[in-house]
Amino acid sequence: MGIVKISDAMHGNLRLASAALSRSINAQAEHWLRVGMLAELNPALSYPEICQLLLTAEGGELSARAPELPESEAA
Hints:
By secondary structure, this protein is mainly alpha-helical. Helices cover 55% and strands 0% of the residues. 3% of the residues are buried.
Protein backbone atom coordinates (compact mmCIF):
# COMPACT_ATOMS: atom_id res chain seq x y z
CA MET A 1 0.00 0.00 0.00
CA GLY A 2 1.23 3.48 -0.75
CA ILE A 3 0.24 7.09 -0.53
CA VAL A 4 -1.23 8.85 -3.54
CA LYS A 5 -1.34 12.64 -3.56
CA ILE A 6 -4.39 14.16 -5.23
CA SER A 7 -5.66 17.70 -5.63
CA ASP A 8 -8.08 19.26 -3.19
CA ALA A 9 -10.67 19.43 -5.98
CA MET A 10 -10.39 15.69 -6.65
CA HIS A 11 -10.64 14.96 -2.93
CA GLY A 12 -13.81 17.04 -2.81
CA ASN A 13 -15.21 15.06 -5.75
CA LEU A 14 -14.34 11.82 -3.97
CA ARG A 15 -16.10 12.96 -0.80
CA LEU A 16 -19.24 13.90 -2.72
CA ALA A 17 -19.34 10.72 -4.82
CA SER A 18 -18.56 8.44 -1.89
CA ALA A 19 -21.40 9.92 0.15
CA ALA A 20 -23.86 9.71 -2.75
CA LEU A 21 -22.89 6.12 -3.61
CA SER A 22 -22.53 4.83 -0.02
CA ARG A 23 -18.85 4.00 -0.38
CA SER A 24 -15.86 4.98 1.69
CA ILE A 25 -13.62 7.61 0.14
CA ASN A 26 -10.95 4.96 -0.43
CA ALA A 27 -13.45 2.57 -2.03
CA GLN A 28 -14.69 5.33 -4.34
CA ALA A 29 -11.13 6.23 -5.36
CA GLU A 30 -10.33 2.58 -6.03
CA HIS A 31 -13.51 2.21 -8.11
CA TRP A 32 -12.58 5.20 -10.25
CA LEU A 33 -9.02 3.88 -10.62
CA ARG A 34 -10.26 0.45 -11.73
CA VAL A 35 -12.78 1.91 -14.20
CA GLY A 36 -10.20 4.33 -15.59
CA MET A 37 -7.58 1.61 -15.96
CA LEU A 38 -10.03 -0.68 -17.77
CA ALA A 39 -11.15 2.21 -20.00
CA GLU A 40 -7.56 2.92 -21.03
CA LEU A 41 -6.82 -0.76 -21.65
CA ASN A 42 -10.11 -1.33 -23.51
CA PRO A 43 -11.02 1.95 -25.28
CA ALA A 44 -13.81 0.34 -27.29
CA LEU A 45 -15.80 -0.58 -24.17
CA SER A 46 -18.59 1.62 -22.84
CA TYR A 47 -19.01 2.39 -19.14
CA PRO A 48 -21.81 -0.22 -18.76
CA GLU A 49 -19.57 -2.81 -20.44
CA ILE A 50 -16.74 -1.97 -18.06
CA CYS A 51 -19.10 -2.33 -15.10
CA GLN A 52 -20.20 -5.72 -16.43
CA LEU A 53 -16.54 -6.73 -16.72
CA LEU A 54 -16.01 -5.78 -13.07
CA LEU A 55 -19.08 -7.75 -12.00
CA THR A 56 -17.97 -10.79 -13.96
CA ALA A 57 -14.50 -10.57 -12.39
CA GLU A 58 -16.20 -10.76 -8.99
CA GLY A 59 -18.00 -13.91 -10.08
CA GLY A 60 -21.43 -12.36 -10.27
CA GLU A 61 -24.03 -11.13 -12.68
CA LEU A 62 -26.83 -8.66 -12.07
CA SER A 63 -30.30 -9.03 -13.45
CA ALA A 64 -30.96 -6.81 -16.44
CA ARG A 65 -34.49 -6.08 -15.19
CA ALA A 66 -35.15 -3.00 -13.12
CA PRO A 67 -36.91 -3.66 -9.82
CA GLU A 68 -40.63 -2.95 -9.87
CA LEU A 69 -41.86 -0.15 -7.65
CA PRO A 70 -44.84 -0.66 -5.38
CA GLU A 71 -48.00 0.92 -6.84
CA SER A 72 -47.88 3.72 -4.26
CA GLU A 73 -44.50 4.85 -5.65
CA ALA A 74 -45.08 4.10 -9.35
CA ALA A 75 -46.60 7.44 -10.32
